[in-house]
Design a protein that fits this description.
The chain is α+β, with helices and mostly antiparallel strands and 430 residues long. It has helices at 16-33, 37-55, 89-106, 148-151, 198-211, 256-262, 289-292, 297-304, 341-345, 385-394, and strands spanning 75-83, 141-146, 189-195, 216-227, 278-287, 356-357, 360-366, 372-382, 404-414. The protein has one domain.
Length: 430
């Protein structure tokens, strides 16, 4: 198993909610299978699964925010927020403090407050909406980011923090093929909620949105399922909606040197308050899957640059073999075409540039043409946003672009981890 930072290791023990969920889950499994030996086996399996889920509670506090190198969970609820008009610095600080308090509880399988969903006065609305009662923590991580407009909007320093804005935190430039929806892009703040239970992730965003009422409003959000990357050696490489393995060469949690060079902001970088943080890029990418599904397998593989079955580079070897971009086939042509996705995205073709990916599939129903509104919700963390910009520009000649359309986008500064008693982004406020 790859080595993980202390803040990314599962917290010991099971919460009271986890124990409640364990008992309920085991009982339900027994009832489903009926009496006898099969029921006993079913109870044991149910208990084991619930115990595993309950144990997946990641520490909220640490040197880095969780949800970056944490083992990628199965489900996502991403949300971007805008601060309300006429809010001030105190409103922003109080919101971040309230979010920090609630997030520290939610990630351990607790309600947002001590009174929670059912412990307060019955004459008042409860603090917690309650749909996660009885559910374990399910590996929930909550990662917070600050957008460029939080620091300055239309020339106005709304919250007195413009001087602390990282010089690299600029709205992403336009890229070839962009068809961005402003209503699904950018935002003053963002929250990335990842969990192994979709209800746990949605519950977290719902309650953090409720806490923000009067200070910030939800600008847009996105649900994701089926991770499209891995961050540990113990995770199998997943597949995207094109059916190909995705994230084979991702930076992993055990690669400390790679993380320090490509993901974490260094103490020598400006500004100082971002040391230990990172920069998050989100891109909603619509995939023309019905068109892709009519492409012959051989052409799909040359577009990607890998085999569909094993994920091996077309130059030979297994999934994890280094691509040989000089290799030629029996016809004397490049085994991995120069316009293939693998070639254009590879660090060797981009001056060694690497990013850490945590993307998810999405299906948002269907469009007016009766086609699936589906694709990839791309998420990446990097030490400098220019790493992403360089790679995206390199992909401008990628033949896969015929089947993709970028419809949403955003960039946020992800502050370093939080110490107990502090709050997310505290260093920005002095």
């Amino acid at each position: 198993m790859s080595e993980q930072p202390e803040s990314e290791r599962p917290a010991p023990g099971v919460s009271r909610r986890g124990l409640f969920g364990l008992a309920l889950g085991a009982g339900a499994a027994g009832l489903a299978l009926g009496a006898g030996g099969g029921a006993t086996a079913g109870v044991a399996v149910g208990r084991a699964r619930e115990a595993d889920a309950s144990a997946s509670a990641y520490e909220f506090y640490g040197a880095h925010q969780a949800g970056v190198v944490t083992p990628v969970q199965d489900h996502l609820h991403f949300a971007a927020f805008d601060m309300m008009p006429r809010t001030n610095r105190d409103d922003l600080v109080s919101l971040l403090q309230d979010w920090t308090y609630a997030a520290a509880r939610l990630t351990q399988g607790l309600d947002v407050s001590a009174s929670g969903a059912v412990g307060g006065p019955v004459q008042a609305p409860p603090d917690d909406t309650g749909e996660a009662l009885g559910l374990p923590a399910s590996g929930l991580t909550l990662t917070f980011g600050f957008g460029p407009t939080l620091f300055e909007l239309d020339g106005e320093d709304r919250f007195g923090i413009a001087a602390g804005r990282p010089a690299v935190l600029e709205r992403l430039p336009a890229f070839l093929g962009d068809d961005l929806d402003p209503a699904a892009s950018n935002g003053d703040l963002c929250i990335q909620a990842c969990a192994d239970d979709p209800q746990v992730a949605v519950h977290a965003v719902r309650n953090l949105s409720r806490i923000a009422f009067g200070r910030a409003r939800l600008r847009w959000s996105q649900l994701g399922f089926g991770r499209t990357s891995r961050t540990t050696t113990t995770q199998a490489t997943p597949r995207n909606l094109f059916g190909f393995k995705d994230g084979t060469a991702n930076i992993l949690a055990g690669d400390r040197a790679g993380l320090d060079e490509h993901v974490w902001v260094a103490a020598s970088d400006d500004p100082a308050w971002m040391a230990g943080g990172s920069y998050l890029v989100a891109r909603k990418i619509a995939m023309m899957i019905e068109t892709w599904d009519r492409v012959p397998l051989s052409e799909q593989q040359t577009i990607v640059g890998r085999t569909k079955a094993e994920g091996a580079p077309l130059s030979g070897g297994d999934e994890f073999a280094a691509p040989d971009f000089a290799a030629v086939d029996t016809a004397g042509t490049k085994a991995i075409p120069e316009t293939s996705h693998v070639r254009l995205a590879h660090p060797d073709q981009n001056g060694g540039t690497r990013i850490l990916r945590r993307g998810y599939n999405f299906v948002d129903g269907n469009n007016d043409l009766g086609r699936l509104d589906a694709g990839l919700f791309f998420l990446s963390f990097q030490r400098d946003p220019q790493q992403f910009v360089r790679l995206q520009r390199s992909l401008s000649s990628d033949v896969m672009n015929e089947y993709l359309r970028h419809v949403g986008s955003g960039l946020w500064a992800v502050p370093p981890g939080i110490a107990p008693g502090s709050f997310v982004g505290a260093g920005l406020f002095g």
